[in-house]
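B., you asked whether I could sanity-check this one before it goes into the benchmark set. Here's the sequence:
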Amino acid sequence: MKLLCLLLANFAVILQLNGQAEWKEVKNDEGITVYTKKVEGSDFKAFKSTAVIKADLSSFVALILDVDGLENWGYKLKRTELLERHGDTLQVYFAEAKAPFPYSNRYGIYRNLFKWDANDKQLRIDIQLLNDASYEYEDLMLLTGEGYWEATVLPEGDLSLVFEMHVNPGKGIPGWLSNLFADESPFETMRSVKTELLKQKYKDKRYEFLNN
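And here's what the prediction gave me:
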């Protein structure tokens, strides 16, 4: 009887794993690899990009905290506005993204939570798109979804970056259309981040939470 229960449990695990979509590599260029995968219960694919860049961790944190500069590297962003900030580890901001004609532009209320693991030398920035009625903008459609940034300090001092998101663009844009361009946002975002991190304004920054 115990053996039968064990076999059934293993079979259930196998079925669960088989039901989970695998990441599929869809682009590899300029040192950036992009993946997409189907998400159960959603018409919209998740996407992920990875890269190793020559930058220090403090510069990357400075880049993410610079909401005013987000339009320079965020994919198709039109305008941004900082709404809340609590120290250097939590921020909430508004961002408007351009949508192709004839669709209305989209906006998101992004919540960033910074978590530093000193043992693994890894920073994770959780990204949550808030569905908050207190933030409403006329003529714009609300984005919903979630994702994260992950920055790991490598032994040689470079940064290994991972950017992952799953986003519902809101009413009007069908899944098949959004999925046609699922590789563009993660690729262009990562490429722009690599360029922006070369700017002097992100150099020589210090953040207390990275010392803990």
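One thing to flag: The chain has one domain: 23-211. Otherwise nothing jumped out at me.
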